[in-house]
Amino acid sequence: MRKLTYYIACSIDGFIGDPKGDASSMFAFLDEEFLGYLASTWPETVAVQGREQLGLTGAENLHFDTVIQGRASYQLALDLGVTSPYGHLREYVASRTLGPSPDPNVTVIDGDMVARVRELKAEDSELGIWLCGGSQIAGELLDEIDELVIKTYPQVYGSGLPMFGGTGFAVSDFTLEGVRTFGNGVLVRTYARKR
Questions:
Q1: Stretch 153-175: mean pLDDT
Q2: Helix or strand holding residue 52 (H, E)
């Protein structure tokens, strides 16, 4: 079975964006050390525009061959005129309102997300599936998430989009696998689900 990894950026208090989903304040922490780490360790998570700037065009995918994102995350790319922000991966967008896909590399999932993710996890591949973003989608797929990679930026938002939206109270246990710290105050924590 392939792993579903929720690889996400968040504030210290667990928000992935402000109340409207904007997380651009976190860009201030993309310094040389941290960008070097992202480029060398998670190259497939860099969108097409960033790949060109970081010299990652044609870089090998190390962890994932598939990405799932929500409509709001995907809309950020569409607003820039980019219909396939992660063209080096198979792209899925969870949306009941987007309609037909605007790009042949992007598949729109407008039905049962859990069933579709289980199908993707059952595929034969050495690489996993990246859950890119979407507070509501993460909440819906919480039981399917096998790994968390949380880039915590040294900011407090106070309110906004939580890492897992739309869920009631329920405890899900994970085991800390590693912590990487950076001079700019960013932490990258990796957790594996306890099953």
A1: 93
A2: helix 48-53
Say which residues have a Cβ less than 8 Å from residue 113's Cβ, sequence separation at least 6. Answer: 94, 137, 140, 141
Contact 136, 109 (CB under 8 A): no
- Measure the CA–CA gap between 136 and 163, rounded to whole angstroms: 8
Residues 28-65: b if buried by 16+ CB within 10 A, e if exposed: ebeeeebeeebbeebbbbbbbebbeebebeeeebebbb
Model confidence over 31-58: pLDDT tens digits? 999 999 999 999 999 999 889 888 998 8
Selection from 89, 56, 55, 57 nearest residue 74 by Cα: 89
Q: Which residues pair with 131 in a beta bridge?
A: 6, 68
Q: What is the pLDDT of residues 103-162, one digit of tens each?
A: 999 999 999 999 999 999 999 999 999 999 889 999 999 999 999 999 999 999 999 999
Q: CA nearest 191: which of 154, 152, 148?
A: 148
Q: Which residue has the tokens 């993309």?
A: 30
The whole-angstrom separation of Cα 81 and Cα 13 is: 32
**Can you list the positions of beta strands (E) in the chain?**
4-11, 15-17, 64-70, 90-94, 106-109, 128-133, 147-153, 161-162, 174-181, 187-193
> Please, is 155 exposed, middle or buried when counting C-beta atoms within 10 Å of its C-beta (0-12, 13-18, 19+)?
middle
Would you say 108 and 101 are in contact if contact means Cβ atoms under 8 Å apart? yes
